[in-house]
Amino acid sequence: MLPVEHSCEDILRAILLFLIFISLGVPAIAQSAEEFAARARQLASQGRPDDAARLFRRAIEISPRKRDDWLSEYADQLAYSGAAEAAVPLYREVMNAPLQPEEKRESARRRLALALFWSWNLEEAVPALRAVAEDYPDDVDLREALNRATTALADVEAGAKRLAGFEMLWKGDYLAAVPALRQLVEERPADAELRSGFADALAGAARVRAEEKDFKQAVALFDEAAQVDPARADQFARQEAEFLLNGGLWNDAETRFRELLERPELSEEDRRGTLLGLARTYAWSGRPDEAVSIYDTLLAKDPDFASGLVGRGQVLADLGNYRRSREDFLRVLSVEPENADAIRGRARTTLGLQRPREMLLQLAPLLEEQDPAARLLAARAFHSMGRPDLAADLARTVVAQGEAVEEGTTFLETIWLEQTPLITLDIAHAWQSDGLRITTLRGRQTTMFEDGLTSFSLETALIRYRGNNFPDVNQASLRFSGSRRFNDAFEARGTLFLNIQDSREGRSRSTTFDTEIGFNQNDIWRYGLHLSRRYAGDTSRAIVERIFANDFGISARFSSSPEMRAAGRMMWSSLSDGNRRLSFEANASRQVLAGDHQVWLGAELRGFTYDRTSDFYWSPSSNANVLGTMQAFGPLPRGWRYGLNGSLGYSRSAPDNQGVTYGIRGQISREISKKGSIALSISHTSSLARTGEAGEGFGTLKSAWNRSEIGVVLQLRF
């Protein structure tokens, strides 16, 4: 153990040395930082840049005033250790330090360029390396780095362009994708993926142009797509033909389809698809028989070919052959119960068979999915049921969703036109073999409300009666008519007549009416109740004598199919002169010719009985008629249409008049515009079972009673 005085002396000497070191602290610590830097250089020479960088960082932390001296070396070791990105700002700091020697700053510029490349900052590395390489043309490392960076940047840029081009393609921006991918294909013509994508973009752009009705540009784009990707040339040619077809260029579409069929390398699947397209071309261009022939050929090879069955079914439905069309759709549904085209096709045939309620049930699955085409079919069903309100609501929904806009808008325009106020002018003149002549002038305005559920008409009529043995009468009537559809089943209509009659006997006034309540049980049966008050006959005698008939009746209408219809009616009448009348009528007809020109043949039975005869209206004790009937109508040139009705049969009136009865009526009509039409008519009726009403008494005239009439009807909407 040291003596105490020695120990104190040593302690004092140590304190003195510590104070000296404090006063000289920086040089003493700097010596320690220098050791770190020296050790870092040693590790760097041994190929240990990670450790060297760590010691340089420690040296700078210990002696910040030495940062400028060691910063460049520190950055080098960071770059060599794989942390080139962290070295970049350090090199920039060296370059921007004003006290750094020019040689060190120039060295930092070179190494910065390399660090940018090593950190894969290619956009900055390439120009930096190019600038340094120009100053040091003999630097092999710089040249190699520049070449590699330039190639890598080109690859990155090409990849970005490629990705951008394909993204535009995937998003459906075909018009923008075409030039982007075209440039890439020109740069790399051997890239199969690029060529395929470019062909897809061209085909997509062609479809866009076709939808814009720019078919010339569309055809050019489809042709280029086929040249870019020859393996899919048939596919693009068929797409081109399909769009020409959809655009209404049927001749061009037919040419394309036929060119495809002549290609020997066409696969069986493509040949079948091409035949389908050709069949649609024939169907849409008004050549349904040729279309059906192609469908028959396809189905002969494969009777369950769904697209062929659907296509043929649609053409047959267009021709009005709903039963055969229905068979095709049912066959598809037996194999593919959820085939939407077949469901819609069957529904369409059901509507054609006049079964709108049944059709709505068939469409239920598609209506739940809000299928736009099914909704429009349902709208047409509601329209045929007398529910224009529901029809318009469905059509508006489809149009608002931006689907089937053209078809939906056209249908809405039809409904709107039907509900546009209508003015009707009707002029007629009739003359009879008993000398009576009747001239009628009517004017009527009809307005609809509540989307067509309610209608109201105001009519003025002037009727002039003249005849040798008939009283002259001038009748003026103001008529108020209305109708209301309450729901799918019930409807009501009625007319009130306010009449003023002028004759030699003076002026008289009367009120008559006619009402009906209808009940639509289903798609087959409709019933009606009738109540009316009218003049007892259609001559001026009943008007002058003020003889009215109060009628009550029932009616029924039956339609088992579009080609078959029947109706019946029975009326009980109580006349104001104490007489009573019972009348009945039944008829049935069947369509024997369908298409543009239709012909119906049928039979009619009608008759009536009176309690007693009267001199003021034709009233034999009984009358019966058995008639064969014919109805025909169809188009004429220049937009005219014709209608022809005829009947021929046997009539008997008690007590002893009987013989042949016939009638014929012809009409031609033409739409002046969507808001106007004109119709001309002429008719003639003759019966050996009816006597004249000129006062000779019944049963005394043996010649036939005849009545002829001509008329013109003008309708205008505004």
UniProtKB/TrEMBL annotation:
UniProt KW Electron transport keyword: no
TPR repeat feature ranges: 33-66, 199-232, 306-339
Residue ranges of every copy of the PgaA membrane beta barrel domain listed in the record: 519-638
Protein's UniProt name: Tetratricopeptide repeat protein
Membrane-spanning ranges: none
Alphabetized InterPro entries for the sequence: PgaA_barrel (IPR049003), TPR-like_helical_dom_sf (IPR011990), TPR_rpt (IPR019734), Ycf3 (IPR050498)
Pfam families linked to this entry: PgaA_barrel, TPR_16
Gene3D superfamilies: Tetratricopeptide repeat domain
Keywords of this entry: Plasmid, Repeat, TPR repeat
Transferase listed as a keyword: no
